[in-house]
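Support reply, case 0932

Customer input (verbatim):
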Amino acid sequence: MDRASFFLHFLILGFVRSKNLDSDTGYSVEKVKGDWSGNESVFPNRTITIAVLTDISSSLYATTGYENLAAAKLALEDINADKNFLPGYHFDMIFKDDGCDMERGLKALTNAYDNKQNKKISAVIGISCSVVCELAGYLCSTDEWNIPVVSHSCSSDDLSKVNKYPTFARLSLSVFKYTQSIIAICEHFDWHKVGLMVNNIDWYVKTAGKMKDLMQDKAKNDLFAIDVFLEKFYFDGDGEDETSDTYKLLVEQLNRMKKKVRVIIIVGYARDIIFVLKTAKKQGMNNGHFAFITQEFIQADLKKEDRDLIESIQGVIDLEPLLNKADPKYVSFSERVRRIVVQQQYPETGKDVANLVAAQMYDAVWLYAKSLQTALDKGLGIEDGTDLVKSYMSNQSWTGMSGEILIDDSGDRRGNVQVMNIQEGDFKQVGTWRFKEAANVSLTLKEKDIVWPGAPEDYPAACGRQYELCETTSDKLAKITLMALVCAAFLFGLLVRLYLYNRTNK
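Our regenerated output:
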């Protein structure tokens, strides 16, 4: 969204107005010095209120959204219980449903800021989708707000632009940061040509363009050169209707892909991925000849009773941040999240462990709290949002609930990747990719554990099992021979004509 459109929404909602922030009841807007010795610069029971946003209303993320909300509450519970962490301060929260929707997200943000409890929020934590994160990034970097945004889920590559979103940081990986792991997988299977299906949302298209450039340039990616065929598809909610223009267009695009590649990378929201995979199944592309790669599709709330869906996603390779969910620490975290879900009577996911994004929500709250502690200790105030992100969130590193965490200078998380394989609706780990390792040894895969779409005995080949999409050496020789024969025939015919001409004119 451009700035003009953004401020148009602002005006429509009637939000632009003067506001006396000093009258808010939370903490004072004066700078609080970071002296933890108990002197008068630290006021007992000073409340720090954060706004937590997540999606609890859309069809794909609602159930996991409630789990994310429970994880945020658990983080505050742990922070407040630690008497040695920010003594004299108490963390509170206001929750709003962002709906993974631009209009609903904007209302959630402005309602959280101008809340009925008259609490001054010091940060926005969470946010389910990038379109809302971009709105939050604009809002929270304004002089009036100037507060950090720490997302647990947004993946737009545009959000990495510090000059554009100076108060933004995140615990999720951007879509672009998965590119090197995709290249490593392609190199492992010798997939030297792939298709890239991308949702026609502006930031997705820009990111896909960057992915394509990096994948095609061996000098830049330091591993493997890949031919990439890009198609931009649309999804407007009518994907299930086979008479709709949206569906017909995707069928045309998939048919073009079928003539060029056997490996397809899908870039989009979970609903977009499902649309492509279901349509591909109807076109017979789950027949053992194709492979599909996605990123963080695991976030979706998939219904196992939907057999068409389960069959459509069978064998997909999904990439997500590396996390050991069997770790006792994570198992305990899952149990504590589930306790809050039950106590609050939230809808349950029915899974044994909490979803990855819930762990990222927990860590997002802690990233803000840890950075705030350091900032206060260095003499900054709670309201110094831009400085807080630039100076104290960047280069934070620790092992959190969502695994190894390293925040770079852009406020982005750098992280290891686990390669997941969808088998009967479950996500099974079949490999890892580690960003600190050299490109040629970064990937570890357990091929025998991978189930491919259509359950073939071997992995799909880039050129097709009959090499039908690529020229073989014999194909090239045949072409050369044919061209030589044509040239010889032409020359022979020319010589005959010259001979006859000369005889006639003697």
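We compared this against your earlier run and they match. Two observations from our side: Residues 196 and 503 are 63 Å apart (CA to CA). The first strand starts at residue 46 and ends at 54. Please reopen the case if you see a mismatch on your end.
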